[in-house]
Each structure stands twice: as C-alpha cells, then as structure tokens.
Amino acid sequence: MNNNKYLTVSAITQYLKSKFDSDEHLRTVFLKGEISNYKSHSSGHLYFSIKDETSKINAIMFSSSARNLTFNPSDGAKVLVVGRISIYEATGNYQIYVDEMIEDGVGNLYLAFEKLKEQLSKEGLFDDKYKKPIPKIPKRVGVITAPTGAAIKDILSTIKRRFPVCEVILFPSLVQGDGAKDDLVKNIKLADNYDLDLLIVGRGGGSIEDLWPFNEEIVARAIFNSKIPIISAVGHEVDYTIADFVSDLRAPTPTGAAEMAVPNIVDLIQYLDNLKIRFNEYMYRKINYNKLLLDTFKNSFILKNPMIMYDNKKQNLDLINERLNNLINNKLDKSRNNLERIIEKLELLNPLSVLKRGYSIIYKDDQVITKTSLIKQNDLLKIKLFKGDIDVVVKEVNNG
Amino acid sequence: MDKKLKFEDKIKILEKTIKELENDDINLDSSIEKYTEAMKLIKECDDELKNIEEKVSKIVTVDGTLENFELEK
After folding, report:
1. In whole angstroms, what is the distance from residue A25 CA to residue A290 CA?
2. Shortest CB distance from B42 goes to which of A170, A265, A275?
3. Contact: A283, B55; criterion CB under 8 Å
4. Closest to A56 in 3D by CA, of A34, A39, A71
5. Would you say residue A299 has pLDDT above 50?
6. Interface test with A, best of B5, B6, B7 (most A CBs within 10 A)
7. CA–CA dist A139, A263 (Å, integer)
8. pLDDT digits over A155-201, tens only?
C-alpha cells in the first residue's frame, strides 16, 4: 500500500496554522463578547473563552499583555478584545491571542481610538524619525494643562525641586469636556511663539471620557506639527492616549513628565564636579608624567657624569701627545746625528788641522794673502802658525 | 568663550575635550591650554547653576502676556 499520500498530524496542523498566520484579517481581530471559563494561571497568563449566544472561541492573554489590564476580568464580563487568531499546535484548537482587552460599554470610544491610532500610525505620525530630541538641560519649559488641580501642582513642584533655575510658563488650558480639544490645539500652536526648549502637554488621571480630548485627531496633529519637543503626560501610568503615541516622549504621569523634562540640579552639579575631577586628574597625570620624564633625563648616566664625555677625549689627547713627542724626539735624534756627521766633515776641512801639518797663513790687515800682487815692499804682514803667529816686514816681492 | 553658548552645549564641549585629552596624545602646552579653557567653562556652568536665583513660574494670560503664577494653596 502506498503511504505517501497520508499526511502526519503535525504536517496538517502546521499547514493549517500557516494558513491562519498568513491571513491578514486574522492578524488583527477586533472582537466583542462575554468572558467564560476564566482562569488566571500562576504564571500570569490568562486563559478564558469569549462567547456570544451561539458561538465560542478560546482565548489566551499572556502576562506581558495582561499586565496592562485596567479592570479585573471575570466570567460574564462583556469585553472588547484585540488580538490575533492562530492555532495552538498541541491541541489543534484555534484561539485568539489577546493583546488588549477592555470592558465593553466604553466600546465605541475604544473602537474610535483604535481606528485613529491605526490611521495615524499608517500615516507615519508615530514614526521614530519624526521624534524630536528632548533637550537634556532646558532653561524654559512650557506646560499646557489646567491651571488648577494635581497635574500643574505636581509638575511645578517637581521642576522646582529638581531644577529651580528652569523657567516654567503655563498655558492654562481646558483638559476635559467640550472645547478642550480646541483649547489644547490653540495652546500648542501658541506655545511655538514663546522661545521654549520643551513643552509638557497633559493632565491628571480620570475616566476614559475625561482623557478623551487627548485622543482627538486635531490634538494629535497639533502635537505632531509643533516645533517644540513635546512630552505627553496624560493620566496615570496605565492610560495610553493618541497624544502619547504622537508626542516626542511619553511620560507615565505629570510628575514623571517633569522628571523627564529637567535634570536634577544636584546630579548636574555632581556631574560638573566629576568632570572637574577628571580634568584635574588628567592634568596631574600629564604633569607628573612629564616630570618623571624630566627626572629620567636628569638622572641619565651622561648627565649625571658629564666628565665621562671628556674621559675618552682626554685619553685621545694623551695618545696624540705621546705620538707627537715621539715624532719630535725621533726628528731631533736624526738631526743630532746629522750634525755630528757634519762636524766630523768640518773637522777635516778645518784650516787649523792643515797648520798642524806645518802650513801657515799670511794675513795683511786681516786679509788672507794668496798672491804676491796683493803686497809690496815694506808691508806689515802677519804669519799665522799652528801655534802662535809672527809679525814680519816684506823685504822684497818677487812676482811669480 | 561665546557667552551665548547654551548650558547643554558647554557640557558637550567639556565632554568632548576630556575625551580628547584622555584618548589622544596631546603635547603639554596645548593640553594646558585646553585644561584652562575647560576650567573656565566649568566655572561658567557652576555659576549658572548656583548663582542664578530661582525662576518664578509665569502664566500666559488671555491677551498673550506673561504674569507671575502662584499655585492656589
């Protein structure tokens, strides 16, 4: 038998699941009905069904989403849920994975909220690329809220406590009821003219109807178009409004907005002090390093013993000196020898040694006479012998 | 230094300068110069935080002018 045409249970389940998951109508489902079989698991996940008169669908809400619930669900409660529908493979059951759930009754508002949120989101009004950076150290902050009530009080006291050098300018505004949305829009536009670093737009907690002006499209667009960075601070932590999505930063509460808006002056002073310490430490290190470097140079062998540099030269000098002396001495010796030889030769030529052998020299007035023409009769002559001399008179000259 | 520099800009300059000093090999003369400049900026910031009196909150009135704003007790 050919088994190949038979599918496994996993295969068909996976196939069906992929069908569900690829259907965009099932990705975001708005569903209304009544809770039944409600069970809250210790993990924080919620398991229940949603039913009407004739049908029922299993539902699961994970703890991450359940954390944002603003009411305690129970069997029989009429609810509006948003989620996606898919198949749980282990049981093969299809079920809705609930992301958001509120009590029905405010249902129309909720649907309007979701519709506007989706529309603006598609338009890109919530995109991060449009979010203006929030200045870290604003000197002038605008606040658009009611001039009375907890919100302005919280904001002012928080700013005063954290950063008293910051100037706060209040744009008193209606924040609930008819006219609130127009008043908010007017003030958001007006604020552009007041040279503000930052704008806080918000109000204290209230019912969803109270907060509604912050879900209005014109308010959202005014926030989007503002030139000033805006922090939204609407209601309590759990309340999310369209204003929160479109603003540059969402604060959980008005107090939170003030904390995000201004730095703590104590932290700032501390930060400056730390910077100062870093600069000083840097400079200390730098100077110390250079000093060390200098010391190393100062302690270098050569600088510590400068005479070493001369020792070599001195030795060279001695050497040269010695060589010079030798040269001179040699030269002298040679000269002396020569001289001795010359003296010997001279000795041979000395006329006295001729006289020794019996010859004599005749002088006339210290002139040596070598021929008779130099003398005449009666001249006085001196005859020099080897030992002594004789004065004689010429008796007669015989020319030879 | 430019008197119109915002506080935040001064902090940025200081952060940039200390990074330069700590990361780059800068000769003693220019590091002393940078250090002196930084100390001047820090003092300016310090003065801005410590010496300026507390700002009074203002409220925008119907005709758009500003008045001092006091919370109702």
Report:
1. 73
2. A275
3. no
4. A34
5. yes
6. B7
7. 11
8. 999 999 999 889 999 999 999 988 999 999 999 999 999 999 999 99
CB < 8 Å to B58, chain A: 167-170
Quote the percentage of chain A above a pLDDT of 90: 57
CB contact under 8 A, A168 and B45: no
pLDDT of A371 reads: 87
Q: Which residues of A touch B20 (CB under 8 A)?
A: none
* CA-wise closest residue to A69 among A40, A28, A109, A34: A40
Model confidence pLDDT, tens digit, residues A312-329: 888 888 999 999 999 999
A137 to B28: CB separation less than 8 angstroms, yes or no? no
Overall fold of domain A137-263: Rossmann fold (3.40.50)
Report phi then psi at A283, rounded to 5: -65, -40
Q: Which CATH number fits domain A9-105: 3.40.50.2300, 2.40.50.140, 2.30.29.30, 3.30.300.30?
A: 2.40.50.140
* Chain segment A331-346, per-residue pLDDT in tens: 999 999 999 999 888 8
Residue A94 pairs in a beta bridge with A87
CA–CA gap between residue A231 and residue A257 (Å, rounded): 6
Instruction: Give the minimum alpha-carbon distance from A291 to chain B in angstroms, rounded to a whole number.
Output: 11
For chain A, the structural domain boundaries read 9-105, 137-263, 354-393
Cβ within 8 Å of A, B 43-62: 45-46, 48-50, 52, 54-60
pLDDT at res. A107? 57
In 3D, which of A226, A232, A130 has the Cα closest to residue A175?
A232
Kindly tell me the sign of the dihedral angle through the C-alpha atoms of A213, A215, A221, A225. positive
Sequence-distant (6+) residues with CB within 8 A of A103 are A71, A77, A78, A79, A80
B13 touches chain A (CB under 8 A): no
